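haha ok so turns out i had the wrong file open the whole time. this is the CORRECT one, sorry everyone. sequence first:
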Amino acid sequence: MADPLGLVLVGSFGNSGDQIYRLHQPAAALGQLEGVEVHEIHANARPRDAAALAADVLVLLMGMDVELLRLAHQRRLLGRPTVLEVNDWLPGVQHCNPVYANWSDSRAWELLTRLMAQCDAVQVSSRGLAKRLAPLGHPLQVLDNQLSQVPPLQPRPPGGRVRIGWGGSAGHLDDLAAIAPALVAWLWRQDNVRLELMADPIYEGLFAAAPPDRFRLHQPGSLDHYLQWLEGLHIGLGPLLPTEYNACRSDVKYLEYASRGVVPVMQRGPTYAAVRDGETGLLFSDDDELLALLDGLVADPDRGQRLADAAHRHVRDQRLLEQHVPRQLSFYRQLLERSPAPATRSSALGAPPPAPPPPALLQAAVMPLAALRHQPGWQQRGPRHWYRDLAGTAEQQLQAGLEAIQRNRWPQALEHFRQSTAADPADPYALVFLGQALERLDRPHLAQQAYERAASLDPLGSRPLRALATLHQRNADRWAAAAAALNPETPLPTSKPPPP
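then structure:
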């Protein structure tokens, strides 16, 4: 009997839609299949690198950590395939999106494109995104969002107000703002309708002029909380402006509405191209068409029920995860089967075949996943599914420090990294970020010590060495500027000897 395929998925953990639909639920579904052992691990968990190097197939979910480039390169030396999942079109990210500051940075897109080139394949969540990424020339696989389950329809009680709703993140602010004036005017003409949003309070301003008794804003929560709220709605809205970013979104909002018996009323465009207009949902192109559709549904609730029933049947029969994960596993198996031996493998960037793996890499890749998952912190979620979130003070303080950096709060970040390294002095990853915080707060000598310690602990990591190189370059530039100010006519020394 052949050994099971060791699959490792690396991503951020949580209860948001992307984390559940793209990581947790697919991992659990893959773990139900024979011949595979699935391991989810948080991107900042201590054993991430060990799990990544041990995997037969590694899947990196929308990661932009520069160390992932190093891991993909090292796996290439070992002859083991790596897949990168990309779920958003970074060059088109809207200003209203909370991730705009990071994603709009050209360095983020450069890093992601380099990582795509280093990996063996790219998987995406929509055909629109696949179309955008196709010119980059990497092997692409579309893995649409699916649902882990579709509960039986819950009939709405007769009578009462028609509840129309939308829920989502601040990244959709422009989409809602585009239809808000028309919706507000329409609400004033309706006596038996209420518009409800489950969203950030920032959305409330868009509907400040709505009749108070016909608009309600709910605080966002977990995905389960959102889906439970949907079960009380009659009609769900899916506005999407015709932007490059929106054209690359998945149709998950349609799936959510349909699975809970909500009539999907979605914006016409590539994202919802699979919706059969008038059969499994309704499509609109502009405000007038949207309001006409809403008028018709309010006037004819029986038609709304028929549409809701048809949409529910569609996702139940065609969009369940268990129906699609065998193809996903087959894709991973094919990558592994086509993966050449390390000595003959060419670089994804067109370079000559790489040198044999260095001894330190071979030693790091010796530990099998079966031994790794017996270490503290791993949880078994199914017969062939293991799960490793952040565990313990060191990892949690590291995560808190990284979040403080994202908010540009360096003194807080420094304290978190100090606590992380105190709890686990042998963690090179935390030491590097401790050094970055020290350097940012003008303590370069202590930063250098942290970087050197990290490099000694992890001979395979590239971040400590890059940090040291950058630190010494800054010091060299500073001393050179001081020398030039004192004696601008004297050439500065260089690392190369002068010509004879």
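The chain has 20 helices and 14 strands.
again sry for the mixup
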